[in-house]
Amino acid sequence: YGGNTKNLKESGVMSDLDFLLLGKVSYSFRKNPQLDQDLVSCDLTFAYKVVDRQCNISGSGVKNTVGAGFTEDAALERAMEVLGEKHSESIFRNI
Question: What distances in angstroms separate CA 42 from CA 10, 17, 24, 25, 86, one per listed residue?
Fold first, then answer.
């Protein structure tokens, strides 16, 4: 994709959609021995763009969250939950 909406426009994929949310998630884990030796934190970054039917970028942004758990999977799941709880309104404001 790389920010070029030409392929979306040429493919006709947007004709059946009002908006398309393109996103990229990256994350890393860290331990917190000061709080609990078994506690894992997940630092999650969600970068996104909202593309409208005419293939114009109507919004974009980056959201960062942290989730905690006693396994990496649990910490990642919680970080994704926090992303939805705290940032879904501002992400979808462009729709």
Answer: 38, 33, 16, 12, 16
- CB 42 within 8 Å of CB 36: no
**What is the rounded distance in angstroms from the CA atom of residue 28 to the CA atom of residue 13?**
33
pLDDT in tens, the chain (95 residues): 566 777 777 777 788 888 988 899 999 999 977 778 889 999 999 999 998 888 888 889 999 999 999 999 999 999 999 999 999 888 888 67
- Model's pTM, two decimal places? 0.82
Q: State the maximum Cα–Cα separation within the chain, in Å, rounded to a whole number.
A: 54
User: What is the DSSP annotation of the chain?
Assistant: -TT--HHHHHHTGGGG-SEEEEEEEEEEEEEETTTEEEEEEEEEEEEEEEEETTS-EEEEEEEEEEEEESSHHHHHHHHHHHHHHHHHHHHHTT-
